[in-house]
Write a structure and sequence with these properties.
Layout (H helix, E strand, L loop, with lengths): L9 E4 L8 H12 L4 E5 L14 E4 L8 H19 L3 E5 L2 H8 L3 H4 L2 E2 L7 H6 L1 H11 L6 E2 L4 H11 L3 E5 L14 E4 L2 H8 L2 H4 L3 E5 L8 E8 L5 E13 L5 E7 L3 H14 L3 E9 L6 E7 L17 H9 L14 E3 L4 H10 L14 E6 L8 H20 L3 H5 L94 E4 L8 H5 L4 H9 L28
Parallel strand pairs: 1-2, 1-4, 2-3, 4-5, 15-16
Antiparallel strand pairs: 6-9, 7-8, 7-9, 10-11, 10-13, 11-12, 12-15, 13-14, 16-17
């Protein structure tokens, strides 16, 4: 691939306080390995991202504001301005969450002049990220989307529940507005009219409208995603389509394991939508296949990289983040060289996701490895040349698991060797009884079958190190420059990639031999994760993660065509 301009730094801009955000780590590693000076917003100097050998300097993330949203946004822009001044020269700005992407598109000129970023209409990122506006976008451009209603009163809530049926999905249109301590989640599975009414009554607290959406049941192999980087001329520079093999929580949520599966129709429709919108930069789209209609429904659109973007690292080492840096610095981007069958694994979610997927009988057919039996595997955390973030993540996961166990009824007695009284039942609030072979739903504080937003630990000793925040960390090694029940139709020979996976240039991708076996047992074994950490993750409930909401509904027939058909 063409070399990146090492004289132009990059700033990873994230405002969601989530120390387990592996997408930000992927961006730091991708650019750092290519010789770029990488800066990033971090919660503290001790979070996993701040430990990366490829991070030149962490910058303090603005503290959550106690005032209005306008005050919070003003504080974020001021923090961004300070970071730009500290960097000292124009840097490529890469937002990693929706709120950051929306602010980046509306920066005042003095702050904007410090950064390089794609030229898009200021309102366009919000049209995509706002779930209510996305409904209008899909209607305008003929893209399939689950049937969705925005009730304006309790009476309209009751009518919507009657029309959409139960269970259904409740979504807050602008989840970045939700107060951090409200307990509200961006997406919630609703099983009764009373639950829907209770949520609507909290609209003022949420600060954004509530949407009710028909539930489109998940099936093995039904969830797909598209990542792409669109250049200054609107052309697709890099990216691809992938299939979600494992998710956390199971059945919906973030990608715990995903594979690169070329899909001509989805790619064509995604590119057409982006070009008709005039979109520039990195775009992440999530789809779910409807077995009843054969259509692929667009569930979410994110105007920034998805956390698993490193899955789409081509045979020349180019991913969407590198392609963006090349384009904004005036350097050419080589023609894509896809690596079908490449696998992405998130170590802190994949073990337990694989276990629960196997128990629930939801495992999809594992994609066959490329010719020769070798597959490229990209781990979200583990990297031989950058171990510190993985070790920090593992330590935090174990500590959090311990706190969760201790918080359970009888937890203290168990730690002291006591026996839990037989009359003390496990908490059952929000847990549905087994029926039809389904697993119980998570507690009501989580969206059943959907991800919840991770919360960073409360301020503690790690914040004592804030005096170092914003300074290079000492002792760092220098970076090294359609039919019901059927699986969705795949594009061409999906599951039997035609191209042989080869090692990538400029990356540290691990290759492993992998038999064609069920992913219910496979992805965790394939991931280069130490056995002790895998056992710990499989035995505890990993922290939730914020998601755009992967639970959906069967809507009207779509202009997004089904794939070209099975092989």
């Amino acid at each position: 691939m063409p070399s990146l301009n090492s004289g132009v730094p990059a700033l990873i801009f994230r405002l969601d306080r989530n120390p387990f955000h592996h997408g930000s780590l992927g961006a730091v590693r991708s650019l750092g390995r290519a010789g770029v000076e990488v800066h990033a917003f971090t919660e503290s100097p001790r979070v996993p991202l701040a430990r990366s050998a490829y991070l030149h300097r962490p910058h303090p993330m603005p503290e959550p504001a106690a005032g209005s949203r306008q005050e919070a946004d003003r504080a974020a822009v001021e923090a961004l301005d300070r970071a730009g001044a500290r960097i000292g020269r124009r840097a490529v700005l890469i937002p990693m969450d929706d709120r950051a992407a929306l602010l980046a598109a509306r920066l005042p000129p003095p702050v904007r002049s410090r950064f390089l970023q794609p030229e898009v209409a200021p309102e366009l990122p919000e049209r995509l990220a706002d779930k209510a506006q996305l409904v209008s976008v899909c209607s305008e451009f003929g893209v399939s989307h689950p049937a969705t209603e925005q009730p304006g009163s309790l009476t309209e809530v009751r009518r919507a529940v009657g029309r959409l049926g139960l269970p259904l999905i409740a979504k807050w249109s602008r989840p970045w507005h939700l107060p951090a301590d409200s307990g509200l989640r961006s997406t919630t599975a609703v099983h009764s009219e009373a639950e829907a009414l209770n949520l609507w009554e909290r609209t003022a607290e949420a600060g954004c409208p509530l949407l009710l959406q028909r539930l489109l049941p998940g099936r093995p192999g039904a969830d797909w995603f598209f990542h792409g980087c669109f250049g200054t001329d609107g052309g697709l520079l890099a990216g691809g389509t992938g299939r979600k093999e494992l998710s956390w929580p199971v059945g919906a949520g973030l990608t715990a394991a995903g594979s690169w599966q070329p899909h001509t129709q989805l790619t064509r429709d995604a590119v057409r939508l982006a070009q008709r919108l005039g979109y520039r930069g990195i775009l992440d789209l999530d789809f779910r296949w409807d077995a009843d209609t054969g259509a692929y429904h667009l569930l979410d659109a994110n105007p920034r990289p998805g956390a698993q973007f490193r899955l789409f690292t081509d045979d020349g080492g180019t991913d969407v983040v590198r392609a963006l840096h090349l384009d904004l610095t005036g350097r050419p981007v080589a023609d894509p060289r896809p690596v079908p069958g490449r696998l992405f694994v998130t170590e802190n979610y994949a073990p337990v996701a694989a276990l629960l997927t196997a128990r629930g009988g939801r495992a999809s057919r594992a994609p066959l490895p490329p010719a020769g039996g070798r597959r490229q595997i990209e781990a979200a955390w583990f990297a031989p040349d950058d171990l510190a973030p993985f070790l920090a993540m593992a330590a935090r996961t174990v500590r959090r698991a311990g706190r969760l166990l201790a918080a359970l009824p009888g937890g203290t007695a168990r730690r002291r060797g006591g026996v839990r009284p037989a009359s003390t039942a496990a908490p059952t609030q929000g847990v549905a009884p087994r029926s039809g072979g389904r697993l119980p739903a998570p507690p009501a504080s989580r969206a059943p079958g959907l991800p919840s937003a991770p919360r960073s630990s409360p301020p503690g000793p790690e914040h004592a190190a804030e005096r170092r925040h914003g300074e290079p960390l000492p002792g760092r090694p220098a970076p090294q420059p359609g039919r019901r029940g059927a699986a969705p139709p795949a594009d061409g020979d999906v599951g039997r990639p035609t191209a042989r996976a080869r090692g990538t240039t400029g990356s540290r991708t691990e290759t492993h031999r992998r038999p064609a076996e069920s992913l219910a047992a496979g992805p965790t074994a394939a991931a280069p994760t130490p056995a002790a950490t895998s056992r710990a993750a499989a035995g505890t409930r990993p922290p939730g993660a914020r998601s755009a909401g992967r639970a959906d509904a069967a809507g009207a027939p779509s202009a997004v065509s089904p794939a070209d058909g099975p092989p």
